[in-house]
Structures are given as structure tokens and as C-alpha cells.
Amino acid sequence: MSESTRKYNFDNLMLHLKDRMKLLPNLESKYMGLTLPFPQEKVLLNMIIESIKRLIEHDEDVCIAVHFNQSDDGAIQYNKIIFIGNDYLHFKRIINFMNRQHIKLDIKDTCILYRECTADLNINLKGNHSRITSLNDLFAGVEIHIDHLEAGMGYQYENKQVKEDIIHYCCHKDDEEGKELGYQLFVKSLDYFSKKLLAEGFVLGYPAVDSKIKIMRASCSMCFYRDYYYISGTHISLKIAMQEVDWQICEPLMQVHMTCNKLYFEGNSFFRGVENLCILQEEGFYKLSFRSRLSTIIDILEEMYNHEEDVSDFHMKLDSYVPVEDVTQLKEKFKMINNIDKWKDELEEQEMNSAIPPV
Q1: Is the dihedral of CA 8, 10, 13, 18 positive or negative?
Q2: Residues whose CB falls within 8 Å of the CB of residue 4, separated by 6 or more in sequence, listed in order
Q3: What share of the chain is helix, strand, coil (3-state, %, to 5)?
Q4: Where are the beta strands (DSSP E) in the chain?
Q5: Which end of the chain is more exposed for a tag (fewer CB within 10 A), N or C?
Q6: Hey, which residues does 287 pair with through a beta bridge?
Q7: Whole-prediction pTM value?
């Protein structure tokens, strides 16, 4: 490979990683979604996909995901499309936009954006990947540390690897330019795939809780320069390292503040099941403060937000994440759709493959 070709490929791959980084979902402080049954008619599906693309162009804070089941042979059956927003009021804006696109969403069809969490935080995790071919050998390895961030902070990345001599060749040892290009590509890949893997999850595909990945050590060795080896080596070794811990499904724990009249409070059975309820009584009104699992309060959110005669000053924010109480209810897989056009191509390919009779 000529030096000009190598530099051209390097520039394209760096640009590719930069573009893919922009597609990673911004899930900071997001904890809930609106669901839409996955359409079975192709015309309706295409209409919805085009409407989603217009929605994202109009509102960059919207994230799209899907619930699906996958058979043993890899066949995917999509069940629901999920519109993830910042809060309840954001959902109202999403619904209004999609209604103008003749797509009906209902505020009652809400779902929880679960997270995947691990308690294994005080250990360094190691992952290695090797690939042996007749032309080149790859040996990549990482050592990482995972920290939890404050709820709603998103994902962070820190490279604590201070040694720059982490690229090695057993052939062309004097290829200093190749080592420099490889170093830049390897480090960029570590940043991208750290965040991507956290966004994709490991159990059912839900994103990890707000986390910081610290790269403690990393290295990549091969016979001679192969740019795509740096990407594959980073991706797989990071994935192996992150799978070393025990991941579990968690749900949001919400901090709620509200004011309601006395009759509403005393007649609402919901409050009798709330723990750590703080009450400040005024004439005819109660000021309430409490924490609640989102699964406990999600079914009455519409009432809380819209029952203006009895409820005022209703505010809810993300407090933390807690393990779900009944994991057996969570069976559907979850996937973020970061590139709508690519997803559309995948759906068309699946349709074509399903139409081909087995041999």
C-alpha cells in the first residue's frame, strides 16, 4: 500500500468514526418513551419512517428505539417503535408533530427507558482480541475501569493511557508514520466504541446507566499496518472487557414535588403506597415531596400533569436508578436506531431474505 493510499484510507476512517460519534444517542436525563405498534404494511412503515426523519430534523432531542424479539436463527420480529423524549411536555410536542404527519401517538402509550447497570466498579476489566490470517496477525488488548456518574450525566470517556508506544509491528518496525497513524486511529476508536457499547447495552440491549469509561492500558500489535484492524481490535477487546462484569436491568427512581388539595390527597390511594413521603400542610392544600419508582407512577402521570383543579406545581426529575423488582416481565429486546436510513435498508433486506424460500 502506497503512503498516499494509506493516508487517504486513514483520513476516511477518522472521518467515519467522527460521523458515527455524532449519531450516538443523547440519552442524558431521558427516562421514558412513547410507543407505536410496529406497522405490518410496508406502505405505512415507509410513511412512518419518513415522518420520523422529518421529526428528527425538526427536533434533535428525539431519540428513536425499537422493541423486538429474535429467534434462535437470528430472525427479528419488531414489536414497537419508541420515541424517546426529555420529559412529559416534550412528549406532547412529539405527539403534535407526528399528528401533523398523520401518525397517531397517544400519551397513554408510555414505556420506561430501562438501563443496564453493574455493581462491579472497583476492579479493572481486561479484554483481548486476536485474529490470525495468512497475511497478517492482530493482537489487541485493553484494560478499563467503569465508574457511575450522577444520574442524567450521560457517558464520559477518559484515556489514562499515557504511554504512546502502544502500536507494535513484527514487520516494518521502522514504519514511524504507520505507528503514528495507527496510534491516532486506535485512540479515536477507543473513544467511539467505549460510548457505543455503553449505549447498546449487554443484557437486553438497553443503554448502560450514566457511566465513565477510563482506559487504563491499551495496546495493538500486528505484522504490518492495517487500518481496519485497529477498529476491529478496539471494538471486540472493549466488548469482551465490559462483558466481564455482571450487568442487571435497572429502572429510574424519580424525585417528585407537587402541590394538591386536601380532598385529592386523602382520596388518592397512590399516596398510601409511597415511601418517604414529606408533607407540608397549608390551608386546604398539601405540598408533597417523595421518591417513586417510575414503574409505580407512570400510569398516573397524565393525571398528575393535567389534573389542574386538584394538582399544581407538579415537577418530576431523575434521582437515580434501582434494580427492577421483577425481571421476568422484561423479555423483549431493545435497540437504539441511530441511523434511520440504515435501519430502513436493513428492514428491506430482511423482507427480501424472508421472501426467498429455503433451499
Answers
A1: negative
A2: none
A3: 40, 35, 30
A4: 32-37, 63-70, 76-85, 110-112, 115-118, 125-132, 137-148, 155-159, 167-169, 211-222, 247-261, 278-282, 285-293, 311-323, 333-336
A5: C
A6: 259, 280
A7: 0.90
